[in-house]
Every structure is written in C-alpha cells, then in structure tokens.
Amino acid sequence: MAIAQAARADEITAEVRSWLAEHWDRSLGAREWRALVVDAGWSYPSWPAEWYGRGYSRAESAIVAAEFAAAGAPWGALDVVSGHGQIELQIGANVLIAHASDELKAQLLRPILMGDLRACLLYSEPGAGSDLASIQTRAERDGDEWVFNGQKVWTTVGHLADFGLLIARSDWDQPKHQGISYFILPMHQPGVEVRPLRQMTGDAQFNEVFITDARAPLDHLVGDINDGWRVLRTALAFERIVMGSTGTRSRDDRRLPVGATIELIELARTKGRSEDRLVRQALAELYILRTVIGWNGERGAAVAARGGASPAASLGKLAMSRLLHTSASVADSLLGPSGTLYGPSVPDANSANVSLMMAFMNSIGGGSDQIQRNIIAERILGLPKDLSTDHDVPFRDVPKAPARLERRGSGSPSA
Ligand SMILES: Cc1cc2nc3c(=O)[nH]c(=O)nc-3n(C[C@H](O)[C@H](O)[C@H](O)COP(=O)(O)OP(=O)(O)OC[C@H]3O[C@@H](n4cnc5c(N)ncnc54)[C@H](O)[C@@H]3O)c2cc1C
Asked: Where are the domains of the chain?
C-alpha cells in the first residue's frame, strides 16, 4: 500500500514538474498564466477531472502546491488571502460540483476559477437566522424563469457579488424543511437592491438585499426542486470548513494574527510575561485548538467533497470561534491598560481590538456557536433533539415573523 502511494506521489511529482518546465514563464501575464493553470486542472486538483480538476486526494493536491511553490509559480486560481474566492470558490463552486446540473457547472465554474465572478450567500432573513428553515422569500415559476420576492439580510459582500446562492420557498404546503429550493440568482438586475449595513469594526462588508420580482433562468436551480435543504447542508458544511480554517481578517484586509500563537508568545516575551503559568497555559490551549481544528477541517472537507455534511465541520468552526476569542483576550491581558487604545500609533492594541470584534464574525456568521453546539449534541453525541412544534406541519400554517422589514430612507450605510 505504502509502496503504491509512494509510486503515485512520484508519478504526480514528475507530471507537475514536466508541465511546469514546459509552461511556466515569468513573462506571462497573471491572467494568461491563470488560464493555463485552470485549463490544465492544476488550480483545484481535488476537483473531478471533467471539471477543471484531476480527481486528486488532498495529499496529492499538496504535492502539486509544493511543486508550484518550488518553481516559484503562482498556484491556485484566486487570491484567497484577500477574501476573493472564499464564497464563490470554496463554497459556491464546491456546491455546484456536488449538486448542480452539468449545464450550470459549464456556465459558472470556469469564470469562478478565473476570478471573473463573485458570489454572496442569500440565506438569512429578518425572521430566519438560526432557524433558517423559516425563510419566506418566495420562488415561483413563470414560464422559462423563476421569479423571486423577499428580503435577505447580513449578506456579506452582497455589494460586490455577481450572483447569489439563494434559498427560497418553492412550496408552502410542505413542512418547513421540505419546501425550500436552492438557486443561483444573478445580482445585476433591477429586482435586486443591495443596501449596506455598518458593523462594529467600522466596515460595511455586509448588506441587506431587497428582492422584488427578480428573475433567474430555469436552469439556475441547484439540485432538485424542494430539495434545497440538502444542498444547503452541503453549502453550510463548506462554509463552516472555511470559517474553521481561515479565521477572519482585519479592517485593512490583511490576514490577522488570528490564533497566531507564535505572535502571542512574542508579545508575552516583550511584556515580560512568558514565564507566567497562566499565560503559558492559555498559549498551550490555543496551540491545541489550532491542531484540533486542522484535523476536524480535514474530516469535514472529505465528507463535504462527496456532497455530504459532516458534523465535524461544526466542531472545527466552534473551535475556531473559541480560538479567536481566546487569542484576543490573551492579547488584551498581555497588553494591560494599553489594550484599550486604538489607532495606527498603537498597532498591537489596535490589532487585538479589531481581532476581538472580528471574533464575533466567526461565532455568529455561518451559524452561531450555540447552533454548532446543538448540532454536535444531536449528531455527534446522540443527545435528544430540541422540542419542535412546527417540523411536520405545512409551512403555510406555521406562525411567522414579518418576512420583510421597511427600507430605511437613505441609501448610505446605516449606523
Ligand atoms: C459577520 C457576519 C456575516 C454574515 N454573513 C452572512 C451571509 O453572507 N449570508 C447570510 O445569509 N447570513 C449571514 N450572516 C447571518 C448569520 O448566519 C446569522 O446572524 C446567524 O445565523 C444567527 O441568526 P440571527 O442573527 O437571526 O440570530 P438568532 O437566530 O435570532 O439568534 C439569536 C441568539 O439566540 C441563539 N439561538 C437561536 N436559536 C437557538 C437554539 N435553537 N438553541 C440555542 N440558542 C439559539 C443564537 O445562538 C443567538 O445567540 C452573517 C452574520 C455575521 C455576524
């Protein structure tokens, strides 16, 4: 077995090296190079061979990454560090591969890989967050198109998106989880109005989205009609894997020292606290969390790649949330009173404060910590499910919150 694996690794190494020797040319433009990499199946080697991949395992994909790095050749289709690529590529494209028709894959996958299309997640509504199956945005068929009406909220990068991954209610006579379908909604149309929301970091990265008679072609349905909950579970698993692996980023869009134990060790040294037992214990806890998150991410990703939804993704996301909050509070305690300061003249304190605020992104977005704990309790520990009175009744008969909130007067970011 080990011999066969080693032979396969050698074969892949030889193939990447020979391809790089033939094609890698520093004088190529970024876009030209990206197109070559995408079309040769190297940008996402774990994807199926018929869809811009090579069907490689994660370990085999790592060989490709290492060979590109050794050659000094840019790898991957998008600049994931800047945030571009997380929703459309790591969530959207993976969901399309698992559930969409070949026609839809053919339309969207290459533009996504080329960085030409950005996406947002149109899930949450004013009356549906943790209880996402309570969504009331309507999807109705009108000839060759779907027509949508409703309101979404907390839509990250909705103002930049070309398409939305939308869940909408397609059958009101089914129980709440069964009448939902999953769609691709083109964002640039008169029926889609995106309005920014200001968050506590001062950024306006998320939005509310008003959907009024917005349209999509019939083939923009992902999976079967009324089977959107299954598609959504795969999508949420991918989202939780992303959130469990990359942490979050700062106001100026640089990668934060999230859970960066090394940087906290440095800070502890600078502040003369590196021998403090409580500090050492906290740093060890962070190290353990990071390690466990990595393992759970691998487990969750393996299941999600087959179109499933592993509860391990919830473990990783919850651990990342603890890591982010604990890192920020350790940094804060090391900084002492200066930790309350903000601004470029106090970079350590500023970074700790922004980290603390951004930590809430992970503990609420993609399903709150409490919801991850419910999933872990029910699906990993086998504890009894929460009591529910509305799971088996037609959604039409379930008491509901208002589906849509009033638009505020101005189009400027709200306070
Ligand atoms: C930074 C950020 C980015 C986001 N981006 C997007 C996005 O791009 N697209 C999108 O659709 N949504 C997005 N969201 C929305 C996010 O998914 C919801 O905020 C989240 O699911 C919680 O829903 P809610 O805000 O309606 O809170 P609620 O569901 O009202 O929950 C309120 C509180 O009650 C707790 N609670 C609720 N139900 C239970 C329960 N059964 N058991 C225990 N506790 C419970 C929750 O944990 C929470 O503490 C984003 C949110 C944030 C913070």
From this structure: 2-77, 119-227, 232-367
Tens digit of pLDDT for each residue in 65-99?
899 999 999 876 454 434 557 899 889 999 999 99
**pLDDT band for position 247 (cuts 50, 70, 90):** very low
Q: Rounded to an integer, what distance in angstroms lies between the CA atom of residue 245 and that of residue 247?
A: 6
CATH fold group of domain 232-367? Butyryl-CoA Dehydrogenase, subunit A; domain 3 (1.20.140)
| Known active-site residue 11 | no
What's the pTM? Answer: 0.89
Owner of token pair 């598609």: 231
Interstrand relation of 206-217 and 145-156 (parallel, antiparallel or unpaired): antiparallel
Give the C-alpha separation, 357 to 186, whole Å: 32
Pocket of ligand 1 (CB under 6 A): 120-121, 123-124, 129-130, 154-156, 206, 361, 364-368, 370-371, 374, 386
| Structural contact between residues 12 and 60, judged by C-beta atoms closer than 8 angstroms | yes
For ligand 1, atom 32: residue with the closest CA? 130
Task: Give the architecture (CATH level 2) of 119-227.
Answer: Beta Barrel (2.40)
pLDDT digits (tens, 9 = 90+) for 197-216: 988 878 888 899 999 999 99
What pLDDT is stored for residue 386 in this prediction?
A: 82
